[in-house]
Design a protein that fits this description.
single chain; 2-enoyl-CoA Hydratase, Chain A, domain 1; 2 domains; six-stranded mixed sheet; Benzoyl-CoA-dihydrodiol lyase; ClpP/crotonase-like_dom_sf
């Protein structure tokens, strides 16, 4: 069965998204019989990949379609269970590759919540009533504030170690110690308690932020929302844009979008992703970008590339090498790149840049061999150059190909390569590339805006190999 990562609120099986002014209620209500695969039921608000696909979609829509929402309440429709975490029977029947990619996607979604908290003026609050265990608590840990009913039965737990002899795989122990700053001995004890802990002890240990008697829960939530409702960025009204469904055509050998094409070579076990640069000039101003909405090249390309990467991760495990190519006019791509950097304070530009940051991290963390090919017609410039820096190795043609009138390929650095799109280690890809030569990054900064031919790129360490026409096809 092919997994589709495209959805919308009208199609959700497991979540309800309800808007109340600047407050959004994101309510988990898992359909037991709505699992992505056969052979298990999603009891006790447990989740599989399908549940998280919807959660990821909801977070994206809150950022792009509802920018004025400043509070997101993460709740459960079941008063006795917040969430029991990842479905064990689903995991038992899954392949190793699916388990790895499931955990990776789940954690990327939790990271997206934290990213929205840090950069999109949204505060996420978990409201826990009933059991909150395993991945359910890991989901709560990704939010800014954990509110728990003090009713004698609500509890939190990371029972993976005592019950399954596995570590919490989507950030549980990491977020307890590194984010909530819990003492490591307490974290050790907590993660070995099968039954978990209830309100008072959870509060004393710092595992939650607040306990409330059930009779006072609604009032406390209302008070908390009133305290937090005004976002830091209150300049003007922000009108959201609609994330329309992607146009995608698929066959056994290709997946094509408007700006991305995936060609699959099953014999060679490779997939070539060709990214088309913009065909028209950058927007004149922020209003023009907003009017274009999801059709704007820079957002459309990010969404299509994201979908293609997820498709390859989950649906094509045997394609072990991903080859990245670009095509288009470098000057036009540089215009769009400059527009983003010049208007980065505008909410929509900021969200697009943050989305590209997440997509590029998705490339970084895709467990395949990644190769970039720079040949005539390529436009690895600025933002798109980040893709080649995310790859394991890069091949660049020196000069032109016989019979091809297009000019020799070049790469161009911009400010996009020096800060806006950090990796998971909070370093830029160039800083990571030259981790032992920090002075090299400083030297590269002085070359911003210069078209760099193959030999120069090779000398500067920006590409792995540079070949002339004679050796190009062989290599």
């Amino acid at each position: 069965m092919e997994i589709d990562f495209q959805t919308e609120p009208q199609r959700y099986k497991h979540w309800h998204l309800r808007l109340d002014g600047r407050v959004a209620h994101l309510i988990l209500d898992v359909d037991e019989d709505g699992g992505l695969f056969n052979g298990y039921q999603l009891k006790l608000n447990s989740y599989d990949l399908g549940v998280d696909i919807e959660l990821n979609d909801a977070i994206q829509r809150l950022r792009f379609e509802h920018p004025d929402v400043s509070i997101v309440l993460l709740e459960s429709a079941n008063p006795t269970v917040f969430s029991s975490g990842a479905n064990i029977r689903m995991l038992a029947g899954a392949s190793h590759a699916h388990k790895v990619n499931f955990c990776k996607f789940t954690n990327e979604t939790r990271n997206a919540i934290e990213d929205a908290s840090a950069w999109s003026q949204k505060t996420f609050i978990s409201v826990i009533q009933g059991t909150c265990a395993g991945g359910g608590y890991e989901l709560a840990l990704a939010t800014d504030h954990i509110l728990m009913a003090d009713d004698g039965s609500s509890s939190i737990a990371l029972p993976e170690v005592p019950l399954l002899a596995v570590l919490p795989g989507t950030g549980g122990l990491t977020r307890i110690t590194d984010k909530r700053k819990i003492r490591r001995d307490i974290a050790d004890v907590f993660s070995t308690l099968e039954e978990g802990v209830r309100g008072p002890k959870a509060l004393t240990w710092g595992l939650i932020d607040q306990t409330v008697p059930p009779s006072e829960l609604a009032g406390v939530i209302e008070h908390l929302v009133c305290q937090l409702e005004e976002p830091p960025d209150t300049a003007g009204n922000r009108t959201g844009i609609i994330l329309k469904p992607l146009e995608r055509n698929s066959s056994d050998r290709t997946v094509s979008y408007s700006t991305v094409r995936v060609d699959k070579n099953r014999t060679g076990r490779t997939a070539t992703l060709t990214i088309s640069g913009p065909q028209s000039a950058a927007p004149e101003n922020n209003d023009a970008l907003s009017a274009s909405g999801a059709a704007a090249w820079v957002l459309r390309c990010a969404r299509e590339l994201d979908d293609a990467l997820l498709h390859l991760r989950f649906n094509e495990p045997d394609l072990g090498v991903l080859i990245f190519r670009t095509e288009g006019d470098s000057a036009t791509a540089l215009q769009h790149d400059a527009f983003l950097n010049q208007h980065a304070e505008h909410w929509l530009v900021r969200e697009i840049m943050l989305y590209w940051k997440r997509v590029l991290k998705r490339i970084d963390l895709t467990s395949r061999s990644l190769v970039a090919v720079i040949d005539p017609g390529s436009c690895f410039v600025g933002l798109l150059a980040e893709i080649m820096f995310a790859c394991d190795r890069t091949y660049m043609l020196m000069g032109q190909l016989d019979g091809d009138p297009r000019p020799s390929p070049v790469a161009t650095l911009t400010t996009s390569n020096f800060g806006p799109y950090p990796m998971s280690n909070d370093l830029t890809r160039l800083q990571t590339r030259f981790i032992g030569q920090p002075s090299a990054v400083t030297e590269l900064f002085d070359l911003i805006g210069n078209p760099l031919p193959a030999q120069t790129c090779l000398d500067l360490g920006l590409v792995t190999f540079a070949f002339d026409e004679l050796d190009w096809e062989d290599e």
